[in-house]
Specification:
This protein is α+β, with helices and mostly antiparallel strands. 30% of the residues are buried.
Length: 110
């Protein structure tokens, strides 16, 4: 796992972000309590359920508004899973671990 790197790499580009199995991008709105909670929650999930084998980028929409608009971000915080496919979008502070695991394809019902 690494901290955000600017400029933001394109997850659809031929060159992968890293060798990480999971490639995630979290869109937040500044240093609000909800944004900070989302960052903490996805890092906990990444370490506990992905064994640290993930690459997370945090995008503050106040600093990267055009990029967020290009990604069709309409609610914050929003977690985008780019790899492994299929791409997924999870909205909220990521406190419902079961919901996040289902969205990431790490856990299924029944």
């Amino acid at each position: 796992m690494t901290d955000p790197v600017w400029p933001i790499p394109d997850p659809d580009a031929a060159t992968p972000w890293s060798s990480a199995t999971y490639r995630l991008r979290l869109f937040i709105s500044g240093a609000t309590p909800r944004s900070l909670q989302a960052v903490r929650n996805i890092k906990m999930i990444g370490e506990r359920y992905m064994g640290g084998d993930y690459h997370l980028e945090v995008v503050d929409v106040y600093q990267q508004a055009d990029f967020a608009q290009d990604q069709d971000i309409i609610a914050l915080p929003t977690l985008m899973k780019y790899f492994p496919l299929p791409k997924r979008r999870i909205i909220g502070d990521l406190s419902d671990t079961q919901h996040v695991l289902q969205g990431l394809g790490l856990w299924s019902i029944g």
